[in-house]
Specification:
By secondary structure, the chain is of the alpha+beta class. The protein has one domain: tt1808, chain A (Alpha-Beta Complex), CATH 3.90.1570. It has two helices and nine strands; from the N terminus they run βββαβββαβββ. The protein has a six-stranded mixed β-sheet, with helices on both faces. Strand 2 and strand 3 form a beta hairpin. The longest helix is centred in the N-terminal third of the chain and has 17 residues. 23% of the residues are buried.
Length: 151
C-alpha cells in the first residue's frame, strides 16, 4: 500500500493497513478501529505491540490518547498503562521518528506527569526511547536502562 513507512528500531508486528476516504489507516488493537496513519501513530502502534509482546503488558490495561487538564488547557497523553489495581503505572509520549527526543520533549511529558503522577515516564520516537522512574517523595527522576517488566 505504501513504501514510505519508516523502519523503526522496534520489533515489527503484523499490522493491518486500509485506505479510508483516501487516507491510509492502521488497525489499532486497543481502540479496536482503524486510525489515520501519521508518523506518530506508526510509532505509537509499534510501541503498543512492543509493550504487549516483549514486556507482557496486558492490552486491557493500556489506554490511548487520554485527556488531561494542564494549566487550564486540555492535553492528551499518547499511551497510559495502568497496574492491576487501576493506578496509573506509566505514561508514554510518542513522537514521529524524525523528532529528536530533546529536553523539550521530555519536559512536555514531565509536565503531564506532574498532573497524572505515574510511577514511570517514557518518551519514544521509534528509533530510541528513554524511561525513568519517578520518586515522588524526593522529587527525583531516575533514568532506567530499559522499560520495567509488567508485574
Amino acid at each position: 500500500m505504501s513504501n514510505d513507512l519508516t523502519l523503526l528500531n522496534l520489533p515489527s508486528f503484523e499490522h493491518k493497513l486500509k485506505k479510508i476516504n483516501d487516507k491510509l489507516c492502521i488497525w489499532d488493537i486497543i481502540r479496536k478501529k482503524y486510525i489515520v496513519l501519521t508518523p506518530e501513530e506508526w510509532v505509537r502502534q509499534h510501541f503498543i505491540h512492543f509493550l504487549i509482546n516483549q514486556y507482557q503488558y496486558p492490552k486491557s490495561l493500556i489506554k490511548l490518547e487520554s485527556g488531561l487538564s494542564y494549566n487550564q488547557l486540555m492535553k492528551r497523553t499518547d499511551i497510559q498503562v495502568f497496574d492491576r489495581t487501576g493506578n496509573l503505572f506509566m505514561i508514554i509520549e510518542c513522537k514521529a521518528p524524525y523528532i529528536e527526543l530533546s529536553q523539550a520533549v521530555f519536559a512536555q511529558a514531565a509536565q503531564y506527569n506532574q498532573v497524572l503522577k505515574a510511577q514511570y515516564l517514557t518518551i519514544a520516537n521509534g528509533m530510541f526511547f528513554h524511561c525513568c522512574k519517578t520518586d515522588w517523595e524526593n522529587l527525583r527522576l531516575d533514568f532506567l536502562q530499559d522499560l520495567p517488566m509488567f508485574e
